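ERR on first pass: missing label on line 2. Operator R.T. fixed the label and resubmitted. Corrected input:
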Amino acid sequence: MARPQPDRVAEPVQQRVRIRYAKRGRLRFASHRDFQRALERAIRRAGVPIAFSAGFSPHPRISYANAAPTGAASEAEYLEIGLTRPVAMERLRAALDAALPDGMDVLEAVEARTPDLADRLQASVWLLEVFDLPVADVCAAAEALMASPAVEVSRMTKQGLRTFDVRGALARLECGPGADCAILRGVIRHTTPAVRPDDVLQALTVLGLPESPTRFTRLAQGPLADDASDVGDPLAVDRV
Amino acid sequence: MPVASVFPALERLLPKVSKPVQYIGGELNAVVKPWDDVLVRWVLMYPDAYEVGLPNQGVQILYELLNERPDALCERTYAVWPDLERLMREHGVPQFTLDAHRPVGAFDVLGVSFSTELGYTNMLTAIDLAGMPLHAEDRGLEHPLVIAGGHAAFNPEPIARFIDAAIVGDGEEAVLRVTDVIAAWKQAGRPGGRLELLARLAREGGCYVPAFYDVEYLEDGRIRRVVPNRDDVPWRVSKHTLMDLDAWPYPKAPLVPLAETVHERASVEIFRGCTRGCRFCQAGMITRPVRERSLGTIGAMVQQSVAATGFEEVGLLSLSSADHSEIQQIATSLADRYEGENIGLSLPSTRVDAFNIDLANELTRNGRRSGLTFAPEGGSERMRRVINKQVTEDDLVRTVTAAYSAGWRQVKLYFMCGLPTETDEDVLQIARLAQEVIRVGRAVTGSNDIRCTVSIGGFIPKPHTPFQWASQLSPEETDARLAKLRDAIRADKRFARQIGFRYHDGKPGSIEGLLSRGDRRVGEVLERVWRAGARFDGWHEHFSYEAWAEACAGAFAGSPVSLAWFTTRERAQDEVLPWDHIDSGLDKEWLWDDWQAALDEVPTDDCRWTPCPDCGVCDAMGTDIQIGPSGSVFVPLARVPMPSSVGA
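pass 2 clean. output:
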């Protein structure tokens, strides 16, 4: 006997919406999985007409791109949702934002008019706030990193301990004083394995900088500018 | 004077610990009230990791009730994992609440809810991290009262030296009464200090205060008697019973965590209490009588929970949910209401009964269909007569046949090992039963893709049950019996690969047995094992039997008692049990008669549909069973969820 199939039919997707959201303050300690659950519940509470997949275990149509690591804050996380009927963008943004906890903030909702958002997320701009160290030491290490041909670090990944180069992914790294810390601003290309901001920090310790409490914030993601100094708006082509 | 948040200090530690999200709070529906606006400040603790503690219904109910009072506030704290504990000690960060990250030591009351005795060491960690003396007698006016509650509080003697008081039974009205007493005492300028407050709680607050009772022992180690050392406290402290659950529809706004927890759903308790009379079941004995919520209240609570949380599953909780007198209507009404909404409904505790398959079909109409779980508990018919689990093998076969016919492919069966009078043969019957289930499943579906998982727990005799006198099987015997069962399951190659077998070794059960039926002398064991590093004893990877055995040897040296004395020893009828002065309403003579009936394999029937067997609860507590049909109706809704806030 064949496995019985459910009699449900999935409602087709009528509208795809791309969303930029932020992970701020204490909410930066939420993992990506935590965010996914919170979003699914927020969608339900806000009454968003989300589309579901067919089958025994229907799943909401949500796809995520490049989530920031647990512990890092972000001003530029992206996802795309499929809806069963068209909605007004600003109302959707406001309703989702209201239904998510403070610190998970929906910044933009733009109707998708192009394929492959993920392809346009080529690089990220990261802010590293390094506490308890002299600014000059941090900046000297940053200069040394950019002057090196390669600096290898190791990190435990799902595939086990991996060793990889950090320098090659760094398009740019600037350093300066902050209010109570040293501030690094790095443009990091999205490579495989991904180089994360804590890998950049580890590269600095490889070069002799002592370990120190550091706060990471992703400021932007998008296509890499021609001079590699910045990234562009990945939703620009969807805004007509 | 407001207390400062410890979050800035904690924040620096969080990047170094696993799953930091569990310490940040900020759950949907969490409440933070201004410190100076209230008179009485509670912190409630579930003494396990956040992922286990957060979904706890007891804590969520009391949290909401207390925060509704204008003169009180309530925050929550959970056990921190050893990685954070180490860092907190190193950097001087105290035990904190999740709601406003206030230090636990600044509150008036630390209420700890114990579903299991294995949380005791985690309470000691929290008390210590809060900067409080471990022993109640060393605490002063500046320290919170430590009050224990939950099912384990029906025998609070092993933790007597660490707690100031215990609340036995339903907590809803009890915490409000305690709050009244504390408020009056604070308003009067704290007359008589901590001692007077405890006396008021014992006299007017319905609390058990261990310090007001002395325990005398016989030379052979048994208890001679437990006697009050003041004349203004009762000889026996009665449990609290909440009548009219419809008047207490909590939680109204369940907490929705960011972190992943063990139950990702909203829960609605559809009734409290159970009179099926399973003789091993402490929950069924101490929560009598049965008190149902009406259809209308349940419908409203489900609706409110879904709207307030966005959960996609609602669990209809109770000790045996299919026993609700209106369960068919509840299931049909809810399934109709949520038609097409991708909202799943579940009955987490169900009996083996073909009728329940119709229910399960109804409940999964709109949601996801996972495995079905049944609990025959005993492997042989004889064993099930001993434990009064009135389910026959025919019932089970009929039920799984219906389940497989209806499209389910996976059935889970729960059993116990080490029950009174049990032999190897009784346990080996579990293998035969599992094989029969697979055989039936293959026959009705025509498919070989049929699975059955057998899950086995070691039986632990619990206070206030007919088995409170029974001998617990030693870990060695438990392990040997389970090894034979495993071999029997593996031996028959026709079924072996389709039967999953899950069990734990007998050692943790032995320690749980010690803590369940222990007396005040076990407090010394707890203190020693905690000082030796015991934490999270309910977690296989943290539990160390050797540490507990060593603590027992040290604490009991030179005395007639031992770990075996507390666990494997059968008690006689005339023995004074450590919890005899805690009144669960059950008549001790009735419990003894039911224990004898178990040995004679004689059933005891359910008072909901046969005459009262005189367990004693309703007479002692002035209560009565409350079951339907309630005559209430399910208020139809125009559209669920709430009218959509976006779109056209």
